[in-house]
TrEMBL record:
This is Protein kinase domain-containing protein. InterPro entries: Kinase-like_dom_sf (IPR011009), Prot_kinase_dom (IPR000719), Ser-Thr/Tyr_kinase_cat_dom (IPR001245), Ser/Thr_Kinases-Pseudokinases (IPR051681). PANTHER family: MITOGEN-ACTIVATED PROTEIN KINASE KINASE KINASE 20, SERINE/THREONINE-PROTEIN KINASE TNNI3K-RELATED. Keywords: ATP-binding, Kinase, Nucleotide-binding, Transferase. The keyword Nucleotide-binding applies. Residues 20-141 form the Protein kinase domain.
Length: 141
């Protein structure tokens, strides 16, 4: 019988933990612990799902792998199992400007109408693509 780990590895790229250097925690809020790391001469994020069941983690890994790449969605590079960890962590594109939520909280005074419209169009475009092309409904917008 094929294990769940083997099924994941058949469809999603797995990266070795020693490929990542210079871990720096950037967030520990919510259900994930997020680190920025160096990987292949670039910065990426490793997102460790800390408050989820294995089923929820597998679901996020599979969905993230399904929807990448798209211009307005963070790129998914694969998964890794860090030392002494039981669950996989996601390897994702690093958004050096931070999250949209952080941007909105930090820059509300200077958030011009033109930028609001641009962001709304980009979000709507990504959601439309998810729904129409991938059959995915985003659960927490």
């Amino acid at each position: 019988m094929i294990s769940l780990d083997d099924k994941i590895l058949q469809i999603i790229r797995r990266h070795e933990p020693q490929d990542f250097k210079n871990f720096a925690e950037i967030s520990s809020e919510g259900t994930a612990l997020v680190h920025i790391v160096d990987w292949m001469n670039t910065k990426v994020v490793i997102k460790k799902l800390v408050k989820s069941s294995m089923k929820e983690a597998i679901n996020e890994i599979c969905l993230t792998g399904l929807i990448s790449p798209y211009p307005n969605i963070i790129t998914f590079y694969g998964v890794t199992k860090l030392e002494d960890e039981k669950q996989y962590s996601l390897v994702l594109e690093y958004a050096d400007s931070g999250t949209l939520g952080k941007y909105l909280r930090d820059d509300t005074i200077t958030f011009k109408w033109e930028n609001q419209l641009k962001f709304a169009k980009e979000i709507a475009s990504a959601i439309l693509w998810l729904h129409n092309d991938k059959g995915v409904i985003h659960g927490d917008l």
